[in-house]
Amino acid sequence: MVTSVTKKNNLVLVSGFAQTPKGIPSNHSHKYLGVILLIDSTTNVIVEVDFSVIFSDLAKRILKSEIEGYCIDDSFAGFSDGVKRNISLPSLGAILQATRAAIDRYSEHIKSKDFK
Questions:
Q1: Fewer CB within 10 A of the end CB, N or C, for the chain?
Q2: How do residues 74-86 score in pLDDT, each as one tens digit?
């Protein structure tokens, strides 16, 4: 799992990755799925999300509507359950895992001396 961080003003850009599930078409061309989050460090709210794997416009729009606006101070389990209630995709587990990895990286970063 590789992650990266960039900061501008109060916005922090982080990414997290997870393996794509076997048996889905994109697994042959993309072994990993990336979730890129832009988080406002004053509120800890995800203000924008993007994905390294190409989803349909509809899937991307719905995923973005579920993820954007989530405050990472809130329970990830509750967030994840809400997403699972509204979305059923073969790659959803990997999307949530990559999202969790990006959030973990963000949490580590804002505690680091590099953030100060």
A1: C
A2: 999 999 999 999 9
